[in-house]
Amino acid sequence: MPKFLCDVRVLLVVAAIAFIYLQLRLFATQSEYAERIAAAVEAENLCTSQMRSLIDQISMQQGRIVALEEQKKLQDLECGQLRTLVQELERKGLQRLIDKVQEPVAAVVIMACNRADYLERTIKSVLKYQSSVALKYPLFVSQDGADPSVRSKALSYDQLAYMQHLDNEPVKTERPGELIAYYKIARHYKWALDELFYKNNFSRVIILEDDMEIAPDFFDYFEAAAALLDNDKSIMAVSSWNDNGQKQFVHDPYTLYRSDFFPGLGWMLSKSIWDELSPKWPKAYWDDWLRLKENHKGRQFIRPEVCRTYNFGEHGSSFGQFFKQYLEPIKLNDVRVDWKSIDLSFLREDKYPRHFADMVKNAKPVYGADVVLKAYNIDGDVRIQYRDQADFERIARQFGIFEEWKDGIPRTAYKGVVVFRYQTPRRIFLVASDSLRWLGID
User: Fold this and answer.
1) Cα(285)–Cα(204) distance, rounded to whole angstroms?
2) Nearest to 419, CA basis, from 295, 252, 288
3) Is the alpha carbon torsion for 219, 224, 226, 228 positive or negative?
4) 155 and 163 in contact (C-beta within 8 Å)?
5) Is 181 helix (H, G, I), strand (E, B) or coil?
6) Cα–Cα distance between 412 and 249 in angstroms, integer?
7) Phi and psi based region of residue 413 (left: phi greater than 0; alpha: psi -120 to 50; beta: remaining)
8) Residue 229, SS3?
9) What sign does the CA torsion over 315, 319, 324, 327 have?
10) Which of 5, 138, 280, 298 has its CA 20 to 30 A from that of 291?
């Protein structure tokens, strides 16, 4: 019996120990879970707080978005109103321009390449007289190539528009020894004139080069001649240049002539003529090409007796050819001629032949070898006959005028007649033998 009781007590003790151990483990587990629950509750509270903060921020951003949208609507409305106002002002400004000048008389383009110092001199000369008539003669500089000094110089003037011709296509000359420069110049001219006539839609363009100065009445002269160019289809272009315009060969700044020889060096061309020339523009030597009879098709050019441009370009693609002898002594007109008051109808095709023939017929004929001395001793106009090109060159050499011909035409000639002054108001007419019948001279 005692042994049984002892075993029971042992079992009770073991059971009590096991119970106590289980209670301890349960308490420890409960404590651990309680801590975890507390941490989870704390984390949940933190998340809730952060979520509320984010919700508040989103609400604020949404408020800002709404405010910005309202501001944008207001700005869009104001921009629309300003746009309408600007358009109205532009319309009114354009209308005032149209009321004052229906369209420009002509665009003026200065053809440039790599002579920044020359270009500056030309721009200053042009702006001296163009500023007062800028609406009638919008000014452009067209540069061939990428010379930075020329580009910088052109862009330094607010009074003009700048164009740049970049052509990297290789040049293939048609004959050995030809200068590539003449091919590049021809490409540049075609590109620039296409831009002005077709892209900018000008009806007339005056072409200058970057080594020219202009006369005080340069623009008035071209404005007066524009009507002739438009209305008389026998006129191909109007030039400001006279090849025999040296000081000793000119006298009257009011005198204008027709010529079968293209003068160039400051000339005005119409869009209708360019429509014809552009598709067949030459690869090089465009000025000589224009002097071919097949290209001007019997049409003529208006030129002044006293030049309205002066060419100071001793250094250029032609290496100063003729400069000292023919270009440097040119007389640049310094008289402000009122061209608006002068009737130029005598230059029309239906009037000019008789007008010119009468001048030649009224000149006194001079014959013999020493024509220069004989002409000098006559007070009035003088007429000298030449047989052929060689004979013309001989006589021209004695006076000192240009001897050169192009396609059978002497420089400045009209119907085979070259006219110039000789140190006095007297006119000298060098008359081709073939022209006598046309002139009505026996």
Assistant:
1) 22
2) 252
3) negative
4) no
5) helix
6) 12
7) beta
8) helix
9) negative
10) 138
Question: Phi first, then psi: what are they for 359, rounded to 5°?
Answer: -65, -45
245, 259 contact by CB (below 8 A):
no
pLDDT digits (tens, 9 = 90+) for 153-164: 999 999 999 999
Q: What is the pLDDT of residue 257?
A: 98
What is the per-residue pLDDT for 92?
46
As a whole number of angstroms, the distance between CA 111 and CA 420 comes to 30
Q: In terms of residues, how long is the chain?
A: 442
Other CB atoms closer than 10 Å to residue 248's CB: what's the count?
Answer: 16
Which residue type occupies 66? V
Catalytic residue numbers? 287
Question: Could you tell me the sign of the dihedral formed by the alpha carbons of 180, 184, 185, 187, in that order?
Answer: positive
Q: How far apart are CA 148 and CA 157, in angstroms?
A: 15
| Residue labelled with tokens 């060969």 | 249
Q: Are strands 364-366 and 382-386 parallel, antiparallel or unpaired?
A: parallel
Dump pLDDT digits (tens) for 223-263: 999 999 999 999 999 999 999 999 999 999 999 999 999 99
Query: What residue ranges of the chain have pLDDT lower than 70?
Result: 1-6, 27, 33, 40, 67-68, 74-75, 77-102, 315-322
- Dihedral through CA 424, CA 358, CA 221, CA 248, nearest 10? -20
Torsion of CA 357, 362, 364, 368, to 10 degrees: 20
Query: Which amino acid, residue 239?
Result: S
